[in-house]
Amino acid sequence: MDFSLPDGAPREFLLTSVDISVGPLSVDLVAVAIVLGPITLILNFLTIVGIGIVAMVVRSWI
């Protein structure tokens, strides 16, 4: 991904992401066995800012 910020600390802060993953989750019932996963959530600072802006816009419409 080519971003328009020059190399440096601000670029590293804005584009460094944290990967949160939950490995395979298995639910074994008597009749059914289900395996979900792995589920991964990738977050960085700009993602959090975007989610906050969308939350404020949706809240103003409700």
Descriptive report:
By secondary structure, the protein is of the alpha+beta class. The chain has one domain (9-60). The chain is 39% helix and 32% strand. The chain has two helices and four strands; from the N terminus they run αββββα. It has helices spanning 9-15, 45-61, and strands at 17-22, 25-28, 33-36, 39-44. A two-stranded antiparallel ribbon has the order 1-4. A two-stranded antiparallel ribbon has the order 2-3. The protein is flat, with a radius of gyration of 18 Å. The model has no long low-confidence stretch (mean pLDDT 88).
Quick check: average pLDDT? 88
Order of strands side by side in the largest beta sheet?
1-4
Low-pLDDT windows of residues: none
Structural category:
alpha+beta
List keywords for this structure.
32% strand, alpha+beta, 62 residues, 2 helices, two-stranded antiparallel ribbon, flat
In short:
The chain has 62 residues and is α+β, with helices and mostly antiparallel strands. It has one domain.
